[in-house]
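Researcher: Next entry in the queue.
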Amino acid sequence: MHRVGSAAVLGAGATASSTLAALGRICDGGVTAYVRGPERAAQMHALGERLGVAVTAAPWERAAEAFAAELTVSTTPAGATDQLAASVPDAPGTLFDVLYHPWPTELAAAWARRGGTVLGGLDLLVHQAVLQCELFTGIRPAPMAAMRAAGEAALAGP
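Model: Structure for this entry, 158 residues:
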């Protein structure tokens, strides 16, 4: 398992909560969550305490600071990070943007142009589907390549 020294999460919803749990297993440093409002900050801090993950909450207005982390995970709805695309630094680390439609997001496209590594939400979706298929059917391995192709075809439209 690859470890990271620093991580940042954009957002504070259910996907951000799952992300925080995963980061607790791979992040050697603390995690900063960029959130809208003190209530969301308190939720992320409390979740971090339950999970044993050091979480610092920062206001959304400072979200571009997330790009200094080795790993930045965007868990926001479509369009929420568009205004941040102009703030991507030269040679950024890794961005995991959980969206898969529209793809690429403005943030993911800017990140790639600057030479950073980008993972998209289709990767997440396919791996979730593979695990579900294996659990539901008992068939291992699930046909990941076919599932990926089906996802790409569905997103390409009619």
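Model: The mean pLDDT is 94.
Researcher: Noted, moving on.
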